[in-house]
Amino acid sequence: MARLLLIEDDLTIRTPLIRALRERGHAVAAASTAMAGLRDALDDRPDLVVLDLGLPDLDGRELLRMLRAVSSVPVIVATARDDETEIVRVLDAGADDYVVKPFTAAQLDARARAVLRRGSSGAGAADPSLVVGGLRIDPRARQVTLDGVTVELTPREFDLLHHLAGRPGQVVTKRELLTEVWQIPYGGADKTVDVHLSWLRRKLGESALEPRYLHTVRGVGVRLEAPGAKP
After folding, report:
1. What pLDDT sits at residue 101?
2. 164 CB contacts (<8 Å, ≥6 apart)?
3. What residues of the chain score a pLDDT lower than 50?
4. Which among 87, 117, 147 is the end of a domain?
5. HSE-up of residue 131 (Cα within 13 Å, Cβ side)
6. Could you give the CA distance from residue 46 to residue 15 in angstroms, rounded to a whole number?
7. pTM, whole model, 2 decimals?
8. Are 95 and 77 in contact (CB under 8 A)?
9. 105-142, pLDDT tens digit by residue?
């Protein structure tokens, strides 16, 4: 299982693609702007980045150049631009592969696996685990340990914790969690987040009244941070 970062602003493309790639065994995080994608790529160290060129705040080619200045993470450009000159420019700028929209999740999955095989001795071989205090979240094995002890989570609980661990110390809204973890629109379903957070707290040995890792920010969302860390 690879850890993928999808940088795509179109929700109608992003949501089903996240779902399909997760069904194929990948751990998938997503960003809707270039700068958010750059931050996530540097903070979370994904195995591979899938990059749309038509982003709202910055052209994808410029983001690719910025990424290449600081990281060797493999990048697949996924865009509607099919001009041969554009494809050559993007590959010359450092992309590892290029796929033209519309494409299927199966095609993207195959290209991702091929790119990762080619670069298995590089950045993709790095340990992708996220560590927050005594918590270690391994997206490849989909395993969580707390102070060295395995924590048994359901697939949804794992996805929720993994998403929060990718943003330690940040308040993550219920809207974002519903969109990125559940892939459903916000509104009326926020109790789903509350219930899963309650189950997750119980398995981490804490409660909403006595939090250690999961801190509710009333009216906003939830923040994951190591015990003793300053908010």
Report:
1. 87
2. 172, 214, 222, 223, 224
3. 121-125
4. 117
5. 6
6. 19
7. 0.53
8. yes
9. 888 988 888 888 776 544 444 557 889 999 999 887 78
Which residue in this structure is represented by tokens 């997206």?
139
Instruction: Supply the mean pLDDT for the chain.
Output: 86
Domain residues for the domain of 84 are 3-117
Question: Can you tell me which residue has the tokens 């969580």?
Answer: 144
Sheet holding 48-51, edge to edge: 27-31, 3-7, 48-51, 75-79, 97-100
SS3 171: strand
**Are 216 and 162 within one domain?**
yes
Give the 3-state secondary structure of residue 201: helix
| Nearest alpha carbon to residue 144 among 228, 225, 154, 126 | 154
Question: How far apart (Å, rounded) are the C-alpha atoms in residues 191 and 203?
Answer: 19
SS3 21: helix
Please give the tally of structural domains in the chain: 2
Q: 61 — phi, psi (to 5°)? A: -65, -40
Task: Give the span between the Cα atoms of 182 and 24, in whole angstroms.
Answer: 16
Say if residues 112 and 76 touch (Cβ distance below 8 Å). yes
Residue with tokens 């195995």: 47
Do residues 74 and 42 both lie within one domain? Answer: yes
Q: Are residues 105 and 145 in the same domain?
A: no
